[in-house]
Amino acid sequence: MFILNKDILHLIFEYLEDNKNDLYSCLLVNKTWCEIIVLILWRDPWNELTNFPHFRSTMLLLNVIISHIQDEAKVKEVYNYFKNSGIHLSSRQRPLLNYIRFCKHLNLGSIMNITEYIKDLSERLIVEDEIFKLFINRDVKITYLYIPKKFNCQLHLIPEAKICFSKIKFLKCYTNIGNNILTGLSECKSIENLALFIESSNNNYEIIKLIKAQKKLVNVYFGSYDDYHEPQDEPFCKILENSLIKHSNTIQYFARFKPFTTEILSSLTNLKSLELHGDQLFEESKWKCLENLSLPSLQFLILQDFPVKYLISLIENTKGSLTIIELHNYGNFYSENENERIIHSIYQNCPKLIYLTFTPQVGNIIEIEKLLTTCQYLIGLRIISNYGFNWDNFFNALTKISPINLYKFCFENNFSMEIAHIKFFIDNWKGRNPIFLKLQCKTMEIKYLLEEYELEGRIAEYDEW
Known about the structure:
The protein is an alpha/beta fold. It has 18 helices and 14 strands. Helix 7 runs antiparallel to helix 8 (about 120-135).
């Protein structure tokens, strides 16, 4: 019998990482398969709790975590605290392996969500402390750390916290983070991916020291859960943005969900990806720092509800390097003329364009035809349509003059699309590459038609929103 090399098996199971059921079914094949799969499953045990929270899966994970506590008296104490709140956990079984040492992701928010089932605060804090000590020790090397809002646990008092967090590559936290947490991260200089959620007040300036201490920041994300029009903490934001100057040669991805307070973007000479969220109700002057900004290495541009003037300026000043553009106009702010100017700037300045997301309007068909003729490397289109969009004209152009490589289509908000439009499009696409299609099937008739086309091979794959 042919036996696959362990490294090849690892690659196969890595590919199946998102399909947990398939991985579970392979656990009992043999010892080698089990060892590899356990490593993958326990790398991020919080993933399912974050994306698909479910009481049963939460309790199953909690049982396994508690089974790692060595002190029998502590185990009984933890069980009793949950029992006092009406949660009856299954009897303790010692784990076959020390699963926790395989963990690379530590989501402190998920731990707090689990312990919230305990109603008594003092009991809850005791259980949290026991779980934290299991994951924060010399044997566990955390590389992904997620810290929730208003997290005030005394992690710095855990003796081996600094060692455990010394090799972090990804950090997600809020800018009002407590000093006790920053103390635990003081040895960390390896962060490459930083996701900060900026508060409108009470920000901790000590986080600036952590940013400056890093050796190679690559991806930076400045988000906010505040209302877009909530005033920024400008003094803090200025210092925060300027702290990135030290990393100007290494930062390749940058996202900002509110206007800049400095000229930091002009320093990021090797930037490859930029994501900005605007609001047409916001003063255009807030984005003035983007005027005449040159980003010659930029390949990916993602903009949401962004002022037209600066949107076009960004596209024109990338010097032809853009390959992916996503323009999300959910507020329907752009006029037909503004939309024309946007499309014109794309086909005039983006000869290497591969993927495009945009919201065309009824009168833009001539500019769309020019786009399809000019951007010959185009592979995928994502259309966010408005009510009243003329699908007849669009599909007519698409089937006649699309570049040879174009085969991926995503139609969002396609409520006005009828079955006749889809039939015309796919019937006239015959003889070209099979289509990858994603749309909203508003009737079962459309769904059945797509399944029929898939069986015939005209659609390679289709998915629904």
